[in-house]
Design a protein that fits this description.
Elements: H1 23-38, H2 49-59, H3 71-79, H4 90-119, H5 126-147, H6 164-175, H7 178-203, H8 211-254, H9 258-261, H10 263-268, H11 272-277, H12 288-293
Bound molecules: fe (ii) ion (2 copies).
Length: 297
C-alpha cells in the first residue's frame, strides 16, 4: 500500500535528531514564543495573563448540552468508575474522560512542582526558565479540561484517587535524576499528545446535532495540544541523542499504561490497536491548527 502521509523531516518528527549546536537558540526562541502565547509569567502567583483571558472567554460561553446529565451519576462514576454501569451513557463517558484526564494531570503537576520547586528554585538557565512556564501551562490544562463540565451543568469537584500506575509514572518523573528526567517527561508528553489528539478525533462521534458543543470541546483540546507539542519539542531539544532514543522507547511503554491510569479511556475505545498505532504517530498527524500555532523546532 502506498502511504499518503507526507514525509517526515528533521523538523517534523518527535523523534528526529536535533541540532545540538543550536540548542540555546531554540530555547531562546521557545521562551519568546511562550511569552507571546501566554503573556509574561507572574512568578508569585504562577499566572499567565493571556491564558487567564483565553480561559475566561471559553468559560463564558453560553453553549449548553441539549440533553441532561445527572450530577449524582457523574459523582458516583467519577469516584468509582464502572464501565458497565447502566447510568454510563456515551455523553457522560466522554465528559468523565475529560475530567479524569484533568485530574490525572493535576495530580502529576502538583507532585512534580512540589519536588522541583524545592530542588530547582534558584536555577535560571534557559531550560529551567522554560520548565517554569511549561509547568504553569499544565495548570491551565487542568482548568481547560475541567471547565468542559460547565457545558453540561455539572460540577467536577469530587475527590480524585490516582491509580497506582499513574503514581508510579509521576513519581518517576518527579524524583528522576536530570539525565532521566527529560526522557521520562518526553515520553509522557508524547503520549499525552497522542491521547489528546485521539480524544479530539473522538469528539465528533459524540453530541451529534450539537456542532457548537463539539467545536467548544475540540477547541479546549486544541489549545492543550498546541502547548503539548511545544513541551515535546523542548524535551527533544535538551535530551541529546541517547536521551532521545531512551525517550522513544519509554514512550512506547508508557502508551501501554494509559488505560491503567485512566480506565475511562478503555471504555471510550482506547484499545490495543490504538496503543499499537502510537508507534507510527507523529507531528504530521496533528490538525493543521495545532501544527501552525504550536512551537515545534
Ligand atoms: Fe498538559
Ligand atoms: Fe505537557
Amino acid at each position: 500500500m502506498v502511504s499518503t502521509r507526507s514525509p517526515l523531516t528533521a523538523s517534523s518528527s518527535f523523534y528526529a535528531a536535533a541540532d545540538d549546536s543550536q540548542r540555546d537558540a531554540v530555547l531562546e526562541a521557545y521562551i519568546a514564543y511562550l511569552e507571546r502565547r501566554n503573556g509574561r509569567l507572574d512568578p508569585k502567583t504562577g499566572t499567565l495573563p493571556l491564558r487567564e483571558a483565553s480561559l475566561d472567554k471559553m468559560n463564558a460561553s453560553p453553549i449548553r448540552f441539549a440533553g441532561k446529565l445527572s450530577q449524582a451519576d457523574f459523582d458516583q462514576l467519577y469516584a468509582n468508575f464502572a464501565p458497565k454501569a447502566p447510568a454510563l451513557t456515551p455523553e457522560l463517558l466522554l465528559l468523565l474522560t475529560f475530567c479524569k484526564m484533568n485530574a490525572g494531570e493535576a495530580y502529576g503537576v502538583r507532585i512534580v512542582k512540589a519536588v522541583h520547586g524545592r530542588r530547582d528554585k534558584d536555577r535560571t538557565d534557559l531550560a529551567s526558565r522554560v520548565i517554569l512556564v511549561a509547568q504553569e501551562e499544565e495548570e491551565y490544562h487542568t482548568r481547560i479540561l475541567v471547565g468542559a463540565a460547565h457545558y453540561f451543568g455539572i460540577r467536577a469537584d469530587g475527590v480524585y484517587h490516582p491509580k497506582p500506575a499513574l503514581k508510579v509514572l509521576i513519581h518517576s518523573i518527579a524524583y528522576a535524576p536530570r539525565l532521566l528526567f527529560h526522557p521520562i517527561l518526553f515520553a509522557s508528553e508524547a503520549v499525552g499528545v497522542y491521547l489528546f489528539n485521539w480524544t479530539l478525533n473522538r469528539v465528533s462521534a459524540f453530541y451529534k446535532g450539537q456542532p457548537e458543543l463539539q467545536d467548544a470541546l475540540a477547541q479546549r483540546l486544541t489549545e492543550i495540544l498546541i502547548d503539548e507539542i511545544g513541551h515535546v519539542a523542548f524535551n527533544r531539544t535538551v535530551m541529546g541523542p541517547r536521551g532521545r532514543r531512551l525517550g522513544r522507547s519509554l514512550a512506547l511503554q508508557t502508551v501501554r499504561g494509559m488505560t491503567l491510569m485512566t480506565p475511562e479511556l478503555a471504555a471510550l475505545g482506547f484499545d490495543r490497536a490504538v496503543e499499537r498505532d502510537f508507534a507510527a504517530f507523529d507531528f504530521r498527524d496533528l490538525p493543521q491548527e495545532v501544527r501552525s500555532r504550536g512551537f515545534f523546532a
